[in-house]
Specification:
Layout (H helix, E strand, L loop, with lengths): L1 E7 L5 H12 L5 E7 L11 H9 L16 H4 L2 E4 L2 H10 L3 H5 L1 E3 L20 H22 L2
Bound molecules: 4-nitrophenyl phosphate (4NP).
4-nitrophenyl phosphate binds next to loops.
Length: 151
């Protein structure tokens, strides 16, 4: 089993979409996919309505997901910890306790665009265009990850 964790700040906008997209592209008998937030402030909540909507319009149902906070055990349980932006990257690296754990943390857009240091921007305070943009970026990134890991 290969275990993949998608991480953002609130675990209600970006990482639920990343989880839903990744799950749709990988064989569930070989991969476990989950998501978490660096902040626990939306703990127990369903994804943001706008994320549910953009997923639904692309044939994905993410409405049953529930926000949770990233915990130390996640660094052992998961093989890849994909973060959305530089701020997530710093927060997650701070929680890692060994080099091995640090090496598991990757900015997700480094997969399709290596060396460009791009962020998936936080869409929370913007409109639906921001969510479309996030969806497209994550669709591209998860395509590349699925190819790399061999579905
Ligand atoms: P996410 O978006 O990190 O993509 O889930 C956010 C959700 C909530 C907040 C910020 C970002 N917030 O400040 O409550």
């Amino acid at each position: 089993m290969t275990n993949i964790l998608m991480i953002c700040l609130g675990n209600i906008c970006r990482s639920p979409l990343a989880e839903g997209l990744m799950r749709s592209k990988l064989n569930f008998t070989k991969f476990t996919i989950d998501s978490a937030g660096t902040s626990g402030s939306h703990k127990g909540q369903a994804p943001d309505k706008r994320s549910i909507e953009i997923a639904k319009s692309n044939g994905l149902d993410i409405s049953q997901q529930q926000s949770r906070k990233l915990v130390k055990e996640d660094f052992q349980k998961f093989d890849f910890l994909y973060v959305m932006d530089e701020s997530n990257y710093r927060d997650v690296l701070e929680m890692a306790t060994t080099e091995e754990e640090k090496n598991k943390v990757v900015k997700i857009l480094d997969e399709p665009f290596p060396g460009e240091h791009l962020d998936v921007p936080d869409p929370y305070y913007g409109g639906s265009k921001g969510f479309e943009n996030v969806y497209k970026m994550l669709d591209t990134a998860t395509d590349v990850i699925a190819k790399k890991l061999g579905n």
